[in-house]
Amino acid sequence: YDLCVEKITPEQRQTLDLSSWKVAFNGAEPIRAETLERFAATFAECGFRPEAAYPCYGMAEATLMVSGVELATEPSVQALDVATLEQNQVVVVDEQSPNASRWVSCGRSLPDQAVAIVQPDTSVSCGPDQVGEVWVAGPSVGQGYWQRPQETQETFQAYVADTGAGPFLRTGDLGFLHQGELYITGRVKDLIIVRGRNLYPQDIEHTAERSHAGLRAGSGAAFAVEVGGEEHLVVVQELEFRQPRDTAVVMQAIRQAVTEEHEIQVYGVVLVKAGTIPKTTSGKIQRRACRAAFLAGQLTVVAQDLFTPTQVTAPAVHLNRASLLAAVEGDRPPLLSHYLQAQIAQALQRDPQQVDSQQPLSSLGLDSLRVFSLRSQIETDLGWDLPIADLFSGITLAELVQQGLRQLENSPAERQLPPLQPLPQISTNYPLSFPQQRLWFLDQLDPGNPAYNIALMVQLQGDLNPAALARSLNEILR
């Protein structure tokens, strides 16, 4: 929903009619009130109604749906005291309170399901307005994981210690019940969710520790923190006992490695002294404790680099293919460099002067969404079909300028694509056949799985322009 708000143009909004949209499900991750409000305000002129927003909660192990709000009612939002919430207690305060945070209700559980809030460490039921792990029971909950009896026992056969109620499914999510409605506050597990992507911390930690010889193996923690209403990635990493002299180079290496490997921006890189990362007695990284120490400013920091988005005040830089190629040959490199520097800075929300022409772009924190946005702007302005992989390959701004000039000077200008002619809509609906129902059900279990994609071979005659073909197909799909 946030991405729709960010990317939609006024011209595109004028073509939309959302008045028939009755239910807009939102339940893939903890729901933010700001997201619902921004979406409703942005698309109000298109006929979207705020009461169509449908916050809900579900998971695959429960056959998706666990709870949901009433249809055709605006989502319920509660303002809670941050300090008491950190102690797992729910205290409702005024929205104008300086210590208030807003939480969106996921509605009530389905009639044939039961939801319990349980202390994750003791399995004792929580009191009213107390945060704990969400447990779910009901006929739609699965029987377990295929041929994984131990995990099935731990996850699907949970019993409340003080009441004996069960069996329940342990969801791994934190939440609370307030006036009978479920609110999700976070996750017990360490899974990092940033911009809808599920990232495993151990993968990021492994990438980070291998990025520089001055870093200790098995002594890093990756976790997410909320900054400006969004989840961002932080990497805390121990240095070797013989610390490298230039910590800026080390932090740049971590940023570059994580961006290139995982296509995600690192909000914060924190280097700490050897032996100071919180660990269990068996040597396992305590990521939640490390995150709490980071937020409280209690880490033994040697150096840190926190990315702080800035409001770009520099004037917009405009350049098109015709004006670039019309310039004398010697003026083209600085023109293109100035343009690209401005576009990269805009994508990163940084000052253009912070974009070093000799620094790999991946070390600046260009994640996948920012790369796609940057590439789209460049293609719109210059007609330059810049490969996505190039921006993740460690290329510098100076190298990008040379590559761009070679392509733009040696390739003909692209012809304008003819407008697409819409076909008449077929309004007749037919019931799905049994095989179609089966395919639909499989897609609900594993959305986007390409197992049933149909491959097609086409024989072409004459020369092929792959870039033009790709653009044409993308235009049709769009």
TrEMBL record:
A GO term from the CC aspect: plasma membrane
Molecular function terms from GO: adenylyltransferase activity; phosphopantetheine binding
SMART domains: PKS_PP (SM00823)
InterPro entries tied to this protein: ACP-like_sf (IPR036736), AMP-bd_C (IPR025110), AMP-bd_C_sf (IPR045851), AMP-dep_synth/lig_dom (IPR000873), ANL_N_sf (IPR042099), CAT-like_dom_sf (IPR023213), Condensation_dom (IPR001242), PKS_PP-bd (IPR020806)
Keywords from the UniProt entry: Phosphopantetheine, Phosphoprotein
A Pfam family matched in the record: Condensation
Domain Carrier, residue spans: 334-408
Cofactor: pantetheine 4'-phosphate
Signal peptide boundaries: none
Gene Ontology BP, a term: fatty acid biosynthetic process
Similarity comment text for this entry: Belongs to the ATP-dependent AMP-binding enzyme family.
Protein name: Polyketide synthase modules and related proteins
